[in-house]
Design brief:
The first copy, chain A, has 3 domains: 44 residues, 434 Repressor (Amino-terminal Domain) (Orthogonal Bundle), CATH 1.10.260; 115 residues, Response regulator (Rossmann fold); 131 residues, Rossmann fold, CATH 3.40.50.2300. By secondary structure, chain A is of the alpha/beta class. In chain A, helix 1 crosses helix 2. The longest helix of chain A has 16 residues. Helices cover 44% and strands 14% of the residues of chain A. In chain A, strand 8, helix 11 and strand 9 form a beta-alpha-beta unit. In chain A, strands 7-6-8-9-10-11 form a 6-stranded mixed sheet, with helices on both faces. Chain A has a 5-stranded parallel sheet with strand order 2-1-3-4-5, sandwiched between helices. Chain A is elongated and about 90 Å long. At the A-B interface, helix 4, helix 5, strand 2, helix 6 and helix 7 of A face helix 4, helix 5, strand 2, helix 6 and helix 7 of B.
Amino acid sequence: MTIKPRAKIRIEEVARTAGVSAATVSRALNNPALVSPQLRAKVEKAAKKLGYVAHGAARALASRRSHALGAVVPTLGNTIFSDAIGAFQRRLEAENYTMLLATSDYDEEVEYRNVRTMIERGVDGLMLVGATHGKALYDLLEASGVPFVQTWAPAKASPYPTIGYDNTALTRIVVDHLAGLGHRDIGMVAGLRRNNDRVRARLVGMRAAMRRHRLPLPASRIVFTDYRIDAVRAAFREMQRRGPMPTALVANNDIVALGLMLEAQSQGIRVPRQLSIVGVGDLEVAAHLHPPLTTIRTPKQTIGTLAAEYLLARIHDRPVELPAELALELVLRGTTAPPPRKDKTV
Amino acid sequence: MTIKPRAKIRIEEVARTAGVSAATVSRALNNPALVSPQLRAKVEKAAKKLGYVAHGAARALASRRSHALGAVVPTLGNTIFSDAIGAFQRRLEAENYTMLLATSDYDEEVEYRNVRTMIERGVDGLMLVGATHGKALYDLLEASGVPFVQTWAPAKASPYPTIGYDNTALTRIVVDHLAGLGHRDIGMVAGLRRNNDRVRARLVGMRAAMRRHRLPLPASRIVFTDYRIDAVRAAFREMQRRGPMPTALVANNDIVALGLMLEAQSQGIRVPRQLSIVGVGDLEVAAHLHPPLTTIRTPKQTIGTLAAEYLLARIHDRPVELPAELALELVLRGTTAPPPRKDKTV
DNA sequence: TCCATTCATGAAAGCGCTTTCTTTTGGCGC
DNA sequence: GCGCCAAAAGAAAGCGCTTTCATGAATGGA
């Protein structure tokens, strides 16, 4: 049952066993084309036999390549990010890269520290969330020369490489839909703005869209919340407290939308008859809610995959281009309908 | 806007700037107690001024410590794991460790490769999910001498350090509850068993508990599914196809439970009047469903935190002890009730 | 006052690889 | 059969740190 922990094997010993030099072993393992088939076979056999596992740090030191990419996301508690990270990692794995992951909890300082640590660890590239970061971070990034890519924002949002969709457009699509249905009084249940340019962009887009439709959007129609269902329900009630409810609510994401539906239902408010709700993200449950949730499908996995591809390409000096922005899709389901007929004005 | 990428600073230059030797700089930065306050201050100032960032690989090579821990989990798509990973990472961060993360997608071979890669990268410790792995994996682990900890299983499940709760006990608790309510015909909607000893343990526990209550549990009462809601609903129908429905269903987790509730509702089956359902995990939504879900609360964050603590302790040669098993809590809510009165037998 | 300790510092030897540079080998044309 | 050149292999010099080990200064006991 217990295996004798054999001493660690260094390249030297593989070389001796195979009857070649360490240099040849290194080449055979990392760049087989440089070694004749016979020696290559010998080396491979010896390596396998001895259970040779290269020493990553030594390799990184000598080659100036860590074969590791870093990712810093706000949180793993949101499937939006964990899905993207999953896709990112799978892409890396396919290319034999390792992922370093850290979470910042929407804290700029923590993010800075994490990035610094990763640079220190020698990551070959870095994935960040959001297109607006502190100057200190950008300075650090530029000083280190590590390729990086920002995510969840369209390319135009930053002078630095960025990949994602346009959050401004997102709320525009939603408002267009709602206004098209006849809604004139639309509210928004937004996420917290702290270090979250996605939320900020959506607000901007919301305001602009409302203006285009010549619809009012007083501050009282916007309420902020984190993504705990309790908090969302409280936000719902907060909006009620501020005056008569809007006929439609734009949620920051599907979880928020779910919370709103839950609170509406428990108050006997009919969705969508009395109140329309739109989510964002198209989580799996969205389609299964009662009624099924109208939402915007966002390309989370694509973001992770493309981020990985971009970084890998940069590292290997392959040409890459980032899409200007990723497509969004309005998924029409059962939570939106024309507003109730105005029997009483305001 | 553009910062001139200053050349990378090596310890040598910090030493020169501070007017001391490289050895002193290293000591001042890593083990300040060994350096006199004056020199320490000088070094710190020089390091800050030059923006010195240590070279992790060189440091790892020289010190034989990577200051990185690895984690390999089946998937990030399940909050069970992403929450635990989040807690794990936060704990590491507090101690200035970095996390390497990889997902195996429940594939033993992928897991092996990932572990190998991490060992190669020189992780100081490793967190794994599950208490049963292939012999090859254990051999690798022992040969490398890297401390590791298994999770999501009780200590007794393995000769190796393991931290988690007892999945056998979990289903026992559920069955006890259901049987106590008067249910005699209980079904189980389990997860896929492939490389998943948690599911297998729950099956074992389920069978044992049913036996203790002298209740039958034919194979037809157990149906397997992955965690997509569509699949769960199909599983529900599959069970119906096999004969008259049980009066209670044990779900593999809250997502599965949700899927079951959804399907029941859409068929007009009343929960819990006609059908009791129990979940596992106590996800945040569980309390907000209609009716609120009876479920078992599992200590996911605790598992992540304790895993980190154990590993850190091992690395620093601090004494550690792992709890035999973590506590489970039955959260009674609205989806369980006595079975409908037997108007017609079987 | 002198020697034995202790403490802070510096010099230098690696850590285990990769990669340049050099040497050797072998293929091929004449 | 000889010489030339390309390809393959080896020797050795680092990569940028940490950590022994050695040294010198400072302290204290006799």
